[in-house]
């Protein structure tokens, strides 16, 4: 009983007599991780530190690099939004890099918070943002990246 010392006796007793469905009722709504898997974001190319310079140096179109980590909740929400917006626009490409596995690129660009998205064109930073953005703001960000990349 030492592991459950933080539960009051009344709460513990209710948990024992409640049907299993009542205990877990509504928890599916709270699992934001389900929105991350099985989306277009799964298909986004994951790059390594070794590939980083080659990928951002590609001059065909602006490249958005999503710096993320598996444990980061906002990253899991932002990823599918980014993937959908990039697919919809078609003028930029999206790659992702796991900062837990590949730390050199994150250190080089001073990524200190997640999620961080940096837009590159010809190896140079065009724009960036840190934190969670909604779909509309992500689409506006992409429009801005395209405009800056084309020199407008």
Automatic annotation (TrEMBL):
UniProt-recorded Gene Ontology molecular function terms: protein-disulfide reductase activity
GO CC terms, sorted: cytoplasm
Database matches in NCBIfam families: thioredoxin
Organism: Mycoemilia scoparia
UniProt domain Thioredoxin: residue ranges: 41-147
The keyword Cell membrane is assigned to this record: no
InterPro entries: Thioredoxin, Thioredoxin-like_sf, Thioredoxin_CS, Thioredoxin_domain
Keywords, in A-Z order: Disulfide bond, Electron transport, Redox-active center, Transport
Pfam families: Thioredoxin
UniProt keyword annotation of Electron transport present: yes
Recorded superkingdom: Eukaryota
Protein name (record): Thioredoxin domain-containing protein
